[in-house]
Specification:
The complex is a heterodimer. By secondary structure, chain A is an alpha+beta fold. Chain A has eight helices and seven strands. Chain A is about 30% helix and about 30% strand. By secondary structure, chain B is an all-alpha fold. Classes of the chains: A alpha+beta, B mainly alpha.
Chain lengths: ~190, ~100
Amino acid sequence: VTAQVLDRPVDRGLVGRRVRLERLSRRHIPAIHAVVTADDAVDDWPLCGQKLAPPQLEAYLWRQSQLQFAVVRRDTDDTIGLVQAVEEDRRNGMADLAVVVAPELWRAGWPLEGAILLANHMFDVLGFRKLYFSMHASTRGRLGGGLEAMFALECTFTRHLRRGDSYEDLHVFALHRDRRDTPGWRLLSGRHR
Amino acid sequence: MGSTTSGTHDERPLAGPPDLPALREHIRRHCGFDPGPLTPVARLDDLGLSGLARLRLVLGLETVYGVELPADLVSAIETVDELVWFVGVKLGQKEEAT
């Protein structure tokens, strides 16, 4: 099923205002490799401490997910990140959403449109009903205020992830397909158009 | 006529850039929290308007005012004053083009 999905032409729904999603291919790997191996990104990357070569990274990404897209700027065609569905549970319509964006771009917000595009694609085209989005307490801070206005905090694992010499909480947020009817979600999903 | 914060139903773009009370109300409606009284020099990051909140803020302003803010511009904006000024510039450019 996933292979059929990947073979389809890119949906217009995968094009946002400032970014578009492109099916991950070899040409995206160097830029994504640079993002995940940047010094200030390593702590947020599950391969913390491991510096994979680009071909190894590509193999790792495809082992991790069959549904993943490069986040590409519409104005410059630069690859700035990656969005993935991981741990897909088709029977129950659930998956985890993973987002990789250059650290300096988190603050600006607009690259996160890529995650919204993928979430909408999974809900509206692929039939998922609930997506999970896990983040460090510090990452939550970088996402700014009002996070709970769009996502439901499902649970918190305390002192869960290693951060330097201590451990940090991990927050798990949920996105429900049927609970997107908030002004913020409509704006992000383009439903206002 | 909708208020400056409707955005989702009344799609007629507004003519002038937001004043500070209107911007505060816009943030409250579109970003899901009240940043409190705004000052021109307040930094957006300090108000919690980074990341996802910045995305919601910008998409909301673009919808309400009928303008588009380029990615590099959104990345460069740091203060409330800069945000209001850039929205005003884009409104002016739109007016010239029409």
